[in-house]
Amino acid sequence: MLNKRALITGITGQDGSYLAEFLLAKSYKVFGITRRTSTPNYERIRHFQDKVELIPGDLLDQQSLTSAVKIADPDEIYNLAAQSFVATSWSQPVLTGEFTALGTTRVLEAMRQVKPEAKFYQASSSEMFGMVKETPQNEKTSFHPRSPYGVAKTYGHWITINYRESYDLFAVSGILFNHESPRRGLEFVTRKVTNGVAKIKLGQAKSITLGNLDAKRDWGFAGDYVEAMWLMLQQPKADDYVIATGENHSVADFVKEAFLVIGEKNWRKYVKTSKEFIRPAEVDFLIGDYSKAKRVLKWAPKTSFKSLVKMMVEADIELLKKNSR
Ligand code: NAP
Ligand code: F7E
């Protein structure tokens, strides 16, 4: 049997790198779209770069996406690329809309025109729930996004459903709650904290400055979540699923747990707060109900909150030690 072919937008990102590894282990031929940057940004994929084929392209450029689908001739398309940092979406709202909202339509159009029989995965987000209408949030919970990012993702979600209904495409949305890893960008709160704790442990920093410590998130491990993306595309019928852990913790809980990894009980001694990191509108409380994914996909998270925090702090300590050698 011929190997399956997958095309990933956002392969250089956190999820793209885990998904590519997951698909390579399943003997897929993996193609990834990378955008032009002044210096290549391949840290997360360097260890398997020779096993994947990179195609230049950008979410802003329809022709490049159409051409990428022609080159890859994929059975599965995973649209993971986006302007994914919520805070930046207020300072660059139009760009966020272009990438995160219209970019999705461009990828869908490329698939519709070149390979309509392929299966499409859209990286939807719990940020669409925003000011939550019920707890926990499930596939039927209505949306109230609270940032230009959340609004753009809501568009991406609905255009995916619209293409499924209009053109009978196999197009699904995974509504993923926050998922983290040692490959998380340094600007996101979890990695900012674990990097800061590692620096404090190694005597390279004295404190960490954060924003709202009370916000609660349902944090899982990115390595577990990419399996759910794949499972969604293996189903007989295209449908949307919430992927979460069903547990939530505050930012303060995360900080506390991270300091415990280095044996420090008094985390407050090291944490400052600044208005700089407070958002114009906040998402206070998210917790996902993943029972549909459990029932249909037979998926469940494997990594606990405690082990996720430990994994991230330890990886950051190792990384800093390696960089200073
Ligand atoms: P990430 O680490 O920020 O990765 C984003 C990827 O998108 C990078 O590969 C980036 O390329 C690429 N990209 C950005 N703009 C692009 C453009 N104009 N053209 C082509 N590629 C572009 O994000 P992530 O955490 O892996 O998340 C993956 C997806 O899931 C995103 O759509 C995100 O919004 C969504 N999501 C994430 C979470 C989460 O908790 N992680 C939860 C729900 C949904 P460069 O490397 O060149 O910047
Ligand atoms: O913020 C609070 C902040 O930036 C989490 C993206 O992957 O998940 C992510 O979006 C919480 C917020 O992630 C700081 O106010 C406090 O309440 O790590 P974050 P996010 O906004 O939840 C969703 C599901 C996505 O789809 C997104 O792509 O932490 N917070 N102090 C802080 N946040 C940051 N970044 N920095 C702080 O200093």
UniProtKB/TrEMBL annotation:
Record carries keyword NADP: yes
Cofactor(s) needed by this chain: NADP(+)
Catalyzed reactions per annotation: GDP-alpha-D-mannose = GDP-4-dehydro-alpha-D-rhamnose + H2O
Keyword NADP carried by entry: yes
UniProt-recorded Gene Ontology molecular function terms: GDP-mannose 4,6-dehydratase activity; NADP+ binding
Keyword vocabulary terms for this entry: Lyase, NADP
GO biological process: 'de novo' GDP-L-fucose biosynthetic process
Enzyme class: lyase
SUPFAM superfamilies associated with the record: NAD(P)-binding Rossmann-fold domains
A Pfam family annotated for this UniProt entry: GDP_Man_Dehyd
Domain (NAD(P)-binding): residue spans on this chain: 7-312
Stored InterPro entries: GDP_Man_deHydtase (IPR006368), NAD(P)-bd_dom (IPR016040), NAD(P)-bd_dom_sf (IPR036291)
Enzyme Commission designation: 4.2.1.47
Active-site residues (renumbered): T154
Functional summary from the UniProt entry: Catalyzes the conversion of GDP-D-mannose to GDP-4-dehydro-6-deoxy-D-mannose.
HAMAP family reported in the protein's UniProt record: GDP_Man_dehydratase (MF_00955)
UniProt record similarity statement: Belongs to the NAD(P)-dependent epimerase/dehydratase family. GDP-mannose 4,6-dehydratase subfamily.
NCBIfam families: gmd
This protein's name: GDP-mannose 4,6-dehydratase
Protein source organism: Candidatus Curtissbacteria bacterium RIFCSPHIGHO2_02_FULL_40_16b
Gene that this sequence comes from: gmd
